[in-house]
Amino acid sequence: MIIVRYGEIAIKRGKRREFEQKLAENIEKILKRKGISGKVKIVRGRILVNAPDYVASIIAKVPGVVSVSPAKELEYSEVPNYLKEVLKEYNPKSFKVETQRLDKTFLKTSIEINREIGAFIVKEFGWKVDLENPELIIGIEIIKGKAYVFLEKIKGVGGLPVGTQGKVVALLSGGIDSPVAAFLMLKRGAEVVALHFDQGTNAKAVVEKVVEILSEYSPDPIELIVENHFEVLKPYVQALTDIKRREWTCVICKIAMLKRAAEIAREIGALGIVTGDSLGQVASQTLSNLYFETVSINFPIYRPLIGFDKEEIVNIAKKIGTYEAFLEFPYCECPFRPERVVTMPGIQEFEEIKFELKRRNLL
To answer: Quick check: 24 and 175 in contact, CB under 8 A?
Structure first.
């Protein structure tokens, strides 16, 4: 049996039951995709999954899950004999018993259970009790009159169940940042559709691997839409060349991709576009350039990494598994990239470029 804990869902007044059901449904979907049969049951404050212990690490990746524990379901009277056998493999310097009584009708309090089971373990094994910094924690949760005993608590990703906050289109480049941005939106309950602008290198293969990794955190496999980067950008580059403003290429390229992303988002009923922008990280991500990109698109743009530094982003990428895929990302110099790139452009110049792009039906 696996105990699934959630946190933020429990404080969603008026929505709690709906969110609990969505989380249980998402767990079932992910297990089914992996060919694992496991009965999922909602009890007060917990979700119980009748599945093998190894499944706990899979469930821990489901957004909305705070932690999971492989546990043994027992009558309370059976707990001492069970621990007598299972703890033979351990020899900690110290331990403590940590009980949570979700079933308040159970006659013994959490403190009473801690003392009773703790005293039994001291008598049986002679271990030292340390309530502040124990080497081993023996967990017990009382749920519907049963005792669930566990020795491990695996941290989950937290957040909200995917599918409770609508759909977004996430731009995926194959770099470090955009997969992390997509993950953070999954973690906040949004369904993600990935969009990649292919430049003809093996970057597409890297993005496909990233999508596969991100799908571990999604109840359904993430859809990947691939667009030809050159076909999308070519008319914009031609317009900039004609008016001798090639230094604006990177900014206008981003606008072109956002415009296409907005078209796709409207077609599939998505409520916004997600990018991996981090303020000041590269030329197209200065505050002025982000402003120009935003005002050019009549559609919501979400930037979950806007205040993150590179180290913070890399740490998340390593944690969720997308960093390894990035290491395979090929270096490719965009043939449209100019020698000089604008970083602090003027609004008057931008308005002139915008006028020309509108005249050509590009905006």
So the answer is: no
- Contact (Cβ atoms closer than 8 angstroms) between residue 162 and residue 63: yes
Q: What percent of the chain has pLDDT over 70?
A: 95
- Which of 53-59's residues contact partners 24+ apart within 8 Å by CB, and which partners? 53/2, 55/2, 55/31, 56/2, 56/152, 56/154, 57/154, 58/30, 58/31, 58/34, 58/216, 59/2, 59/4, 59/27, 59/30, 59/31, 59/156
Give the model confidence (pLDDT) of 105-114 as tens digits: 999 999 999 9
Calpha distance 104→86 (Å, rounded): 27
pLDDT, one tens digit per residue, over 128-185 is 999 999 999 999 999 999 999 999 999 999 999 999 999 999 999 878 999 999 999 9
Predicted TM-score of the model (pTM): 0.91
The domain 2-155 is placed in CATH, from the list 3.50.50.60, 3.40.50.720, 3.30.2130.30, 3.40.50.10050, at: 3.30.2130.30
Q: Provide the residue type at 176 as one letter.
A: I
